[in-house]
């Protein structure tokens, strides 16, 4: 494993992302616009004027890199047992799992003293004999990766020199992240060999792969296992689908994962892990995973209880801008996020505010993951007080210190109706942990007003009118 550890360490993600430009698929090179967001080009392409949305794989990577350790949660677990022969129990210590000593040493060397909530329940099932299938869901940072990596390492029979464990990730960078965890956890097990099955990794056509664990992206895995037959898919005993929601919901990945799944042995242990599962994705997962134990960590309920909500009537975009000018002094006392619908609006607003001498950060979909990290780091460290963004700042990315959220554009679905879930998610960023927060909605036109009213009705919480031309009203926001 030593070479492998070194390799993983050498491939520190920050540097990687820097060199590589994130790709949504190993075979597609996304062309990125690295030019400064403030330079809104004269000829604007469609992407800029369409609603800006987050790429789930990029978001996962961002969340992983931003994550600073285990998220402690008091949320309850929801467990469904499809196989009546697999009694469920939980462990309070890693010793209780009866792991190989070297593996336990690796866990402690990583600074893990006790299992996290999801690990307590998942690990006994993951390590059980006979092997049990699992579909697990819990929010980012709760210890899923560490759990399945431990299962992967503990299942390897080092006497057999062929791949026994496959772990699929949606992107190169996410695969490397998982590999790094495996390398660290297995650092005292030099006999366990791992290999990345990602672009740039090549194997001679006439050679067989002898490593025990393959971590990679679906395309490369299919090439190696099916097209070039560099290993025997039927000999795989553990199959892990990480970021299962992204994998299943992304067309290309979906097909490739299904093909891999079909080539596997019936007895292969199937483990699906994800931070979220849409209903369809969960239904699909249940369809292809036989008798799974399903573990879900109940979602933290975002609430509007601690949030004062306002709306400001504006004539047009300029009117909205004036409203922001008027409240700038107030919003920049703490930290504020301004949400726009499109990259174009975000860019326009940022350039206007910048030219008026305000210091603002911008985060939109045309930035690389590395650029987004830099923007978030600056904002989180308080260097910039105002962050202008789109829906690309999607759920899961936590910025605790936000006190005001401004909806420059109210969130709407493709039919133009109020998107209440996104509204809750956006403004739920403020007013957390019992602190009070403020949400200001800039409303122009009847359609927009109707959206605002629909949101008010949906949550049964008043959204009060705010006149940003009135000093008294503005003072009201801060109190
Ligand atoms: N039992 C533990 N004790 C202490 N730290 C832990 C434990 N398990 C995991 N961690 C640490 O917590 C962080 C989050 O863990 P992990 O990456 O496994 O979570 P995750 O649920 O897979 O998150 P994501 O969905 O972002 O991949 C990591 O820094 C990891 O090293």
Automatic annotation (TrEMBL):
BP-aspect Gene Ontology terms: regulation of gene expression
Keyword Aminoacyl-tRNA synthetase listed: no
Database matches in InterPro entries: DEAD/DEAH_box_helicase_dom (IPR011545), Helicase_ATP-bd (IPR014001), Helicase_C-like (IPR001650), P-loop_NTPase (IPR027417), RNA_helicase_DEAD_Q_motif (IPR014014)
Domain of life assignment: Eukaryota
Pfam families: DEAD, Helicase_C
Helicase ATP-binding domain boundaries: 125-295
Protein name: RNA helicase
SMART domains linked to this entry: DEXDc (SM00487), HELICc (SM00490)
GO cellular component: cytoplasm; nucleus
Name of the top EC class for this enzyme: hydrolase
Principal subcellular localisation of the protein: cytoplasm
EC number(s) per entry: 3.6.4.13
The organism of origin for this protein: Drosophila madeirensis
């Amino acid at each position: 494993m030593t070479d492998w550890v070194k390799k993983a360490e050498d491939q520190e993600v920050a540097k990687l992302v820097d060199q590589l430009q994130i790709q949504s698929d190993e075979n597609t090179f996304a062309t990125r616009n690295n030019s400064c967001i403030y330079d809104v080009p004269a000829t604007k392409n469609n992407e800029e004027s369409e609603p800006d949305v987050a790429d789930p794989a990029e978001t996962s990577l961002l969340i992983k890199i931003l994550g600073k350790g285990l998220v402690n949660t008091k949320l309850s677990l929801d467990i469904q047992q499809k196989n009546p022969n697999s009694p469920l129990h939980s462990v309070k210590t890693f010793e209780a799992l009866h792991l190989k000593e070297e593996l336990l040493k690796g866990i402690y060397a990583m600074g893990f003293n006790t299992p996290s909530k999801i690990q307590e329940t998942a690990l006994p099932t993951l390590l059980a004999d006979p092997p049990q299938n699992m579909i697990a869901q819990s929010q980012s940072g709760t210890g899923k990766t560490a759990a399945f990596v431990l299962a992967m390492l503990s299942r390897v029979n080092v006497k057999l020199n062929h791949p026994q464990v496959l772990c699929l990730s949606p992107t190169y960078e996410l695969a490397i992240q998982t590999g790094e965890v495996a390398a660290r956890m297995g650092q005292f097990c030099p006999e366990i060999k791992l290999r990345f099955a990602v672009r740039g990794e090549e194997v001679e056509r006439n050679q067989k792969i002898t490593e025990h664990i393959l971590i990679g992206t679906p395309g490369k895995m299919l090439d190696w296992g099916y097209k070039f037959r560099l290993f025997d898919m039927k000999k795989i005993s553990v199959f892990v689908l990480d970021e299962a929601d992204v994998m299943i919901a992304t067309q290309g990945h979906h097909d490739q994962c299904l093909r891999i799944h079909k080539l596997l042995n019936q007895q292969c242990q199937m483990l699906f892990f994800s931070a979220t599962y849409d209903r369809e994705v969960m239904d699909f997962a249940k369809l292809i995973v036989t008798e799974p134990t399903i573990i879900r960590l109940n979602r933290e309920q975002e609430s509007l209880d601690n949030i004062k909500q306002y709306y400001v009537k504006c004539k047009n975009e300029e009117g909205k801008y004036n409203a922001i000018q008027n409240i700038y002094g107030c919003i920049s006392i703490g930290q504020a996020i301004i949400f726009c619908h499109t990259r174009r609006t975000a860019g326009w607003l940022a350039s206007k505010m910048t030219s008026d001498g305000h210091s603002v950060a911008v985060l939109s979909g045309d930035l690389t993951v590395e650029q987004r990290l830099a923007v978030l780091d600056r904002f989180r460290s308080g260097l910039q007080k105002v962050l202008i963004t789109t829906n690309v700042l999607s759920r899961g990315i936590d910025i605790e210190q936000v006190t005001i959220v401004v909806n420059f554009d109210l969130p709407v679905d493709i039919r133009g109706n109020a998107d209440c879930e996104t509204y809750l998610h956006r403004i739920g960023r403020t007013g957390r942990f019992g602190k009070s927060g403020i949400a200001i909605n800039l409303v122009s036109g009847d359609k927009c007003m109707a959206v605002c009213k629909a949101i008010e009705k949906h949550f049964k919480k008043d959204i009060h009118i705010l006149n940003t031309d009135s000093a008294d009203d503005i003072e009201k926001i801060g109190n």
